[in-house]
Here is the input.
Amino acid sequence: MLKVSDLSSRFFIVAHRGASAYEPENTMRSFRHAVKLGCKAVEFDVRLSKDGYPIIIHDETVDRTTNGHGRVNELSLEELKALDAGLGEKIPLLDEVLDNLSGRAVFFIELKVDDAVKPVLEAVEDRDLWSSVLFISFKPFHLREILNYNSDAYVGLIYFKSGDGIVTARRIGAIAVLPYYRFASKRAVAFAKKLGLMIIPWTVDDISVAKKLKSYGVNGVATNKPDLLLSLEDNYS
Here is the structure.
């Protein structure tokens, strides 16, 4: 089974919402494509349906990524599963992703809403997948809640603007920071590494940018186009 620790000593590619440049994002089709390409890590977003099921979708509404309309948290699982998420794909349950891809990839699970934290933790615990999951969020209190639940869990702080994200992540007890790639300067990368943090910028779809970031010493990058960047992976074959 692939573990987060397997990634920590090598440059790696994270498939952002799967191979989302080529497949409907956050669908089983997108995740399978990424794994088939050779990605060791896949990232996806979790929200809750109206009736409390953890499902994989990025936006607050279903409008952009499906043929439906409305807020995710106002639709039941049955209503959500009736939607087409692209090419006939359905919005996956978290359970479906974990059960189908366990052992084949490390999971970067982004928590989009407060109420999703506990059910996500329970799903991971039920399958004893702690070593294969990096829980990520823009919200520090999500990460604190996760570590209060299991102090051995791996957590990472995402940020989209300059500031004290690296220091905040260190104070929380995170193992990683995930900045928007424009904030992954050579200085920021060195600072994160000095504090013992992995640094994994997002979202990089240009190989020249990825090469520059790798030269700075980042641990990996998240991309919508993993096929373009996989050749940069250490020990790639």
